[in-house]
Amino acid sequence: AQSVTQLDSHVSVSEGTPVLLRCNYSSSYSPSLFWYVQHPNKGLQLLLKYTSAATLVKGINGFEAEFKKSETSFHLTKPSAHMSDAAEYFCVVSDRGSSNTGKLIFGQGTTLQVKP
Amino acid sequence: ETGVTQSPTHLIKTRGQQVTLRCSSQSGHNTVSWYQQALGQGPQFIFQYYREEENGRGNFPPRFSGLQFPNYSSELNVNALELDDSALYLCASSLVADSYNEQFFGPGTRLTVL
């Protein structure tokens, strides 16, 4: 069975400083991993995805994530936080079991606060 | 190209009632998945429809049911509403039903059960 664990429920950074949101995954298969962002009262937006190509994945708005199989991690980073980055972030693994529906399994979410 | 749309935006029902939520998939997408997001939680997979057939189901009781129409739009029906059904219901569409394709989410329907 696949699962994801987001290690921090809340992260607070100052504007202009680096962002690190941590995620560990568990999967019996070679996983597809995603990071989604959810702004208040808005739908989920895909930031980036890993599907067994390059281990360093670049996404939108300056975010990137590195797939580390040995550590079963997929941490999200950004060199410099903007106020507009304040939102809820979800680490997600996609089902690759026998059904292969591609159903998404979400972590509990990390709230990113950006202080001026 | 139109994105995923959902209706209604908000809904208030009382315990025991039935509700139908609607989703229009993105143009060209034949797969629709439904998720329930309780307050402060990550979304949980309810079920998926692929070419009008159910193609996988999460850990939800049978009172949660769905349909997909020939134009690939979809409905989520919930019978005998319970207080714990209060949540944001998200619909997502994708090109095909597999783990490689991005799922595009709608804005959701906020259901409140009193």
How is this structure best described in words?
The complex is a heterodimer of chains A (116) and B (114). With 116 residues, chain A is mainly β. Chain A has no helices and twelve strands. In chain A, the strands form three sheets. In chain A, strands 2, 5, 6, 10, 11 and 12 form a six-stranded mixed sheet that branches. A four-stranded antiparallel sheet of chain A has the order 3-9-8-7, with no helix packed on it. In chain A, a hairpin with a 5-residue loop joins strand 7 (56-58) and strand 8 (64-68). The radius of gyration of chain A is 14 Å and the shape is globular. The model of chain A has no long low-confidence stretch (mean pLDDT 91). Helix content of chain B is 0%, strand content 50%. Chain B starts with a strand and ends with a strand. In chain B, strands 2, 4, 5, 6, 9, 10 and 11 form a seven-stranded mixed sheet that branches. Chain B is mostly beta strands and 114 residues long. Chain B is built from no helices and eleven strands. Chains A and B meet through strand 5, strand 6 and strand 11 of A and strand 4, strand 5, strand 9 and strand 10 of B.
